[in-house]
Amino acid sequence: MIRKTTIQDISRVAGTSPSTVSRVLTGSAVVSPEKRDAVQDAIRKLNYRPSHIARSLKTRVTYSVGLLLNDITNPFYSAIARGVEDEAHRHGYSLILCNTSEDADREQLYLEVLQDKHVDGIILGPTESNLSYLRDLAQRIPVIQVDRTVDDIASDAVVVDNFAGTYEATRHLVACGHHQIGVVRWRRSISTLAEREAGVRQALADLDIPYEPAFTAEAAGLSSQDSMIAVQRLLRVHPRPTALIALNNQLGLGVLAACRQLGVRIPDDLALIVFDDLDVFSFFQPPITAIEQPAYQIGERAMQLLLARLVAEKDTPVERVMLPTRLIVRQSV
Amino acid sequence: MIRKTTIQDISRVAGTSPSTVSRVLTGSAVVSPEKRDAVQDAIRKLNYRPSHIARSLKTRVTYSVGLLLNDITNPFYSAIARGVEDEAHRHGYSLILCNTSEDADREQLYLEVLQDKHVDGIILGPTESNLSYLRDLAQRIPVIQVDRTVDDIASDAVVVDNFAGTYEATRHLVACGHHQIGVVRWRRSISTLAEREAGVRQALADLDIPYEPAFTAEAAGLSSQDSMIAVQRLLRVHPRPTALIALNNQLGLGVLAACRQLGVRIPDDLALIVFDDLDVFSFFQPPITAIEQPAYQIGERAMQLLLARLVAEKDTPVERVMLPTRLIVRQSV
DNA sequence: TTGTATGCGTTATCAA
DNA sequence: TTGATAACGCATACAA
To answer: What is the pTM for the complete model shown?
Structure first.
């Protein structure tokens, strides 16, 4: 490859010193109009572009941020990513995308690489496992948690009111006549899922409806297969639940698949509410009632918090943003 | 922030020179076992991690690649991204994610930044507009086109056999008794869409079925609204098409929305095939017949091509990979 | 306002 | 096999 043109080259043709070139580049000091013009001409003529690498080495800022998400393929996460990216782009930041796949080792590896690459900050939906690592990472570099949070990490965070989401959904089910309400859940160690389950229980308690442990199905994983098995088990109990709340979109799809396979009709045989609304739910048969999360805004807001953190005083207190959910009533209840 | 520990620090505690430390780090030369151990001990003790920035400045390689896609929010693109990312991760590369939003200016801006950041290569689904810019970008740095290609750019590419996809779909429609087949398209300047349309026409021609221009609807944009308008127009002609092929998933969703609004029943009033299968199509009513693209593999393969290109001889000929599509027959026809 | 000199943390060249 | 030394491209402290 041809040698890149550098600040030296510019200074040479502009008849000035490298530092002056740097000054017009960064605007860090006043430069006389003549020199400035000369430099700018030279820049144009040589088609010069400053090296971010060199600049970063010197200034220690990279204008890039790491984004660690479970799986960009999940519409919820891709919407978050889009929100982050748009906001980052508006402010001249680039995004390094990492899929953790709910794998703690992979997460930690990424976290290390991101530091090696000296990102200015990290936005992540944490797995539950790298607690102590995360904790001291957050001391050294701005970390924003999104979607989920993990205990005791002093970091900004953007989450959703999971509890209120399922609380409202549960009341809706009850209002529709359901008293035997089941939950399809996954790992309770994940903050979001725990909060959602708590919302259901509280609503039930407030309504004086006994909580029936047998109505809770725990999927072994997030594959359709896993949910299917869990749901099958659930539907074998007698009496069986008349309504189900699936705690995330994958679980919801699993329930749907299971019902189809078992010939369970929704909503006639079983009502269903899914946490996290997919925009295609309205095309389903029946259209699925769901709890909508403002995914894009989560991402956008997270990036805003990060930007704020980057210019904040040393010990500005941590900020936790909680966004509301919304129950989208369709016809699966 | 505390000063980062450097190679100097290591050399000091290991009782050796910085160059020797560098040598054990990179394995670029043989180092005596004693020195090697001393260095490794020091590294562990000081918790040292090399600065990628400094390294990149020197070596001119960054182990990062840019990925420019229309919109990560579209399941087709997010699957590509996932494929790229997984493969990149396996080889120690990170991904800089950019959403172009079909906006040429934004694309060019990203392209410039990526160069400024000195990425090792770029994978992109190009907009049609930065032709000349792209052309000489591809001379300077490895570029892999995915999904779409743009004329005359000497770059590797991974695409799908769009033509065959719609060709087969069209024959399927005809086999099901449809002779009045319409197409819902968008910009014909996009290679994929043009090829897909050509597939339909060729199939029709081969079957001696006249092509009816009035059966083609051009959406003004990709919003549901846009498709809706286009479809409404289409359904007003007499005689009207009995079957439609939507040239991408967004257009397909638009058709569906339009039909719902207009009370057009699928497949009774109108058959539909969508190019690009969404995994939720099986939950729709009716389940949608679609042309599946191996999105994940597109991404994975693209990253593989890039890796190969990075170690290839100067003028290794360009490689164009074409992956097959598959017609998934469900019940919308 | 401008220029010189130095350093950011590495790797690479060269001599020993 | 090892160590000085220079260089990567830039920003900045300091001197002028």
So the answer is: 0.96
For B175-222, how does the pLDDT look when each residue is reduced to its tens digit (9 = 90+)? 999 999 999 999 999 999 999 999 999 999 999 999 999 999 999 988
H or E element at residue A224: helix A224-236
User: Å from B52 (CA) to C10 (C1')?
Assistant: 9
Token readout for B248 is 């991408």
**DSSP characters over A93-104:** -EEEEEE-TT-H
A163-209 per-position pLDDT tens digit:
999 999 999 999 999 999 999 999 999 999 999 999 999 999 999 99
**Residue A231 — left, alpha, or beta (φ > 0 → left; ψ -120 to 50 → alpha)?**
alpha
Report the distance from CA of residue A7 to the C1' of nucleotide D7 in Å, as an integer. Answer: 15
Residue A271 DSSP label: E
Quote the pLDDT of residue A1: 44
Query: pLDDT above 70 covers what percent of chain B?
Result: 99
Q: 3-class DSSP state for residue A144?
A: strand
Q: What is the pLDDT of residues A99-110, one digit of tens each?
A: 999 999 999 999
Give protein residues whose Cβ lies within 7 A of nucleic acid chain D: A 3-4, 6-8, 18-19, 22-23, 25-26, 28, 49-51, 53-55, 57-59; B 16-20, 23, 29-32, 34-35, 54, 57-58
The parts of chain A modelled with pLDDT lower than 50 are 1
CB-nearest partner of A97 from B2, B85, B140:
B85
Q: The domain A7-50 belongs to what CATH superfamily?
A: lambda repressor-like DNA-binding domains (1.10.260.40)
Cross-strand bridge partners of residue A94 = A64
Residue B268 sits at the vertex; the CA angle it makes with B266 and B270, to the nearest 5 degrees, is 60
May I ask the CATH architecture of the domain B162-292? 3-Layer(aba) Sandwich (3.40)
- For residues B20 and B11, give the distance between their C-alpha atoms in angstroms, rounded to a whole number: 8
To the question of domain A64-160+295-324 being in CATH 3.40.50.2300, the answer is: yes
Strand A121-124 and strand A156-160: the pairing is unpaired
Q: Are B64-160+295-324 and B162-292 the same fold in CATH? A: yes
Q: Which residues touch strand C (CB under 7 A)?
A: A 16-20, 23, 29-32, 34-36, 54, 57-58; B 3-4, 6-8, 18-19, 22, 25-26, 28, 48-51, 53-55, 57-59
Under 8 Å between Cβ of A187 and A213: no
Q: For chain A, what are the domain ranges? A: 7-50, 64-160+295-324, 162-292
